[in-house]
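Supplementary Text 2. Reproducibility record for the structural model of the 197-residue chain.

All settings were left at their defaults, and a single model was retained for analysis rather than an ensemble. We include the record here because the model underlies the residue-level annotations in Supplementary Table 4.
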Amino acid sequence: MDILATLKAERLSIADFLDDLEDREWAVASLCDGWTVYDVAAHLATSTRSTLGGTIKGVIRARGNWNRMNADEARRHAAQYTPAEIIAQIRETAGSAKRSPGAGPLDPLVDFLVHGQDIARPLGRSRTMPTEAAVAALEHVHNSAFYGARKRFRGTRLIATDADWQAGEGPDEIQGPVADLLLLATGRTTAVPHLIP
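Retained model, structure tokens:
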């Protein structure tokens, strides 16, 4: 899989999706606790604009809390720009290889795949994840200490029902579509209650 080409396509797809939202939908609560659809979109627009210095300052301001730092940055960005400007920013850098400090090559793709669902599902809208990209993202999330999936699913086998993917060992099994497994692996349990044993 060409990661950058896949990421570019996903960024442009998200921009098109956001373009189609009604004004009231921007204020709907996303799957990210405490974040609106607007906040998530603003977060995605910052993904190619983050600097090491800005990230360090943000983490210090958030007293070492990575999630709080991301939320604060997203809300600041949302307060500065209109939805149309945020969509334009995502399009402008769709082909950019620049990543947030500390992010690996697959992390931006994970971000866009998962945050696309964080936005779409609460709105009752559908966003299909490209299977190859979703499998690569799930494999990365499962193996990365950052996301905590291995620890969370110790003693459990995850098995995709719509792709050739499985991981983990143990007596327990969780089976589901690869997109749902990716949401579960990134902690979105409320989005996939049917997968929770």
